[in-house]
Amino acid sequence: MAVMRGNDQGLTSEVAIVxxxxxxxMLSLFLDLYGIQSVVFNTETGVRWHPKxxxxxxxxxxxxxxxxxxxxxxxxxxxxxxxxxxxxxxRLSAWELARFRMPSEIEVARLIAAANQTDQIPEPMHRxxxxxxxxxxxxxxxxxxNITLRFGWQADQFSQNADGVSLTAVCAADSKTETWDAGYxxxxxxxxxxxxxxxxxxxxxxxxLEQAYLGGRMISSHLRAPTLYRDHLGQRRAWVxxxxxxxxxxxxxxxxxxxxxxxxxxxxxxxxAPDDEAIKHTLYRCIGxxxxxxxxxxxxxxxxxxxxxxxxxxxxxxxxxxAVHLFTPTGGFGMNTGVDDAAxxxxxxxxxxxxxxGSHLLDSYDIxxxxxxxxxxxxxxxxAKQVGVVEIPxxxxxxxxxxxxxxxxxxxxxxxxxxxxxxxVGVELGARYDGSPIIASNEAAPTxxxxxxxxxSVPGGRAPHVWLGPERSIGGSLFDRLGxxxxxxxxxxxxxxxxxxxxSAQERGVPLDILDLPDAAARELYGSDLALxxxxxxIAWRGDSSPADAGAVLSRVTGA
Length: 560
Hints:
- With 560 residues, this protein is an alpha+beta fold.
- It is 30% helix and 23% strand.
- Strands 1, 2, 7, 8, 9, 10, 18 and 19 form an eight-stranded mixed sheet that branches. Strands 5-4-13-14-15-12-16 form a seven-stranded mixed sheet. A four-stranded mixed sheet has the order 22-21-23-24.
C-alpha cells in the first residue's frame, strides 16, 4: 500500500491526475467507483468549447454504463430521431453518391429492445461531440466526493520516490501555489504531455501522412449555419457529410442537429493561419450556394499521425490517452482507446492502494495497453490511407450519361472500401491481452479483425455479453451484475463447486463475487463451466472445475 508522505500544506490524495479531458475525468470516475480518492489538475478553467471527436464506441458506452451515466450521455448530441448516417455528395445541393446507414437513437432503442439473449452489443456506438460529453463528465465529477478538481491550475515540478509522488500546482487566476503528495500520478495531459516530457519518454511511429486529403495539416472549424437544413439538407440528414468532387473535398459533422456543424478542410498553404472568409467560401463551394454562416472557432491539427510512446509508465508515474498514443481521427479510435486505458489502469491502482494487488500488477498496464495502442493507431492510419486514395473523375459532376457512370463508380468505391471506419466493431470490442503475465492461460489467441467481433471466453478478451432476463434495460445485462472486484461466473445448470477459489480470495483479501448463470445459452457461449472476470470485464481465467491450486491462479491474476 502506498504511503503518502504529507507536506507543509497537508494536501494529499491517493492518485494525482494531470489533465482533465475525457481520459483524466474517466480515470477519476473509475477510481471513485472503487472508493479511491483522486485530484485532477487541468490548465483550462473548464471544458474547451470546440468540437473534437464524435464517436463513443460500444466499449466506451459499456464503460459509461458501468459508471451509471450511459443513459444520460445518450441524450447528448443529435436529436433522438436524427439519422447517424455517413453520406457522400458531389455538393450538398447536388448528387448523393452513397450512404452508409446507421440508426438514430430512437432506432437504437428499438434494436436493443429486440436483441437476442446473447447479443454482443448492449450499448451501441453513440455519436455525440466530445465537447458535450466532456462538459457532462466534468459536471458529474463535481458531484463525487472522492474527486477533487483543480481546473485552472497548472501542475508541474513532478518528483517521485519509493513512497509516492509530489507535484506543485499554480492557479492561473491568482498565482496561488499548492504542493500535493500522492501515492501515484497519472499523466492524461495530451500530445504535448508535461508528465511524459518529465519522464523523458518519446513517441515512435508516424507523425503525419502526406496525401490529398486527411493528410498533413488540416483545419477543424466550428460554425453555425441556421438555414442549411431548411434549404439543402432537410430531407437528406446525416451525421457526417463527405463532399467529393474534382474541385475540393471536405468532411462536415452535424453537432446539434439544428444549426451547428464542424468541418474539416485542408488548406492550400499549410503555414497559413485559419481564415474565416476562406472557410466560408469553401463551405459555399461545397454546398453549391451561398448561405448565412457564422464561424465560431478554428483548430489546426495534423492528420495521419500514428504515434505510440515507448513506455506507458515509470515506477509510480503512469501515462494514458493522447499522452501515450496519437491518432488520425479516421475510425474514431483516439478518445475511445484512452478511455480503455483508464479502465485498465484504474482497477490496478485501486488493487495496489487497497493492498490486494501484487507487486507486479501495475507492470501489466504497459504490457497490456501498449500493444493495443499500436494495433489501434495502425488501424486508424490504414483507414485514413483508404480515404486519401479515392479517385475523383474529372467529369463526375456533369449532367450526362458519362457523369452518371462516374458518380456510380465513386459511390460504389466509398460504399465498399470506406464503410469500415464507421463500424469498426472488431477494434471496439476485440482488444485482447494475450501473453499478459496476469492472464492465467496458455490458450491460442483468436484471430483479430478490425470489422468483426466474435465472442470468445479464451482468457485475455472482453467477457462475452449475455442478457440475463427478458428486459433489455439497465440492470438486465451481465455487465450490470459484475462486481467492482473479480467476478466468478458459474455457468450452466450443474456448475462445479468453487469453495477453494472463494477461500483463497478471502485469504488474500481479493474482492470476489460469485454469479450463477444457469441458462444453457450462457454456458454454450462461454464454452466452459467457470470464468473469472477481472474488474475491467476482461477474462482472467477459465476452466471446467476449480483449479488444483486456486491460490496460484489468484496470485497470478492479481500480479503477485
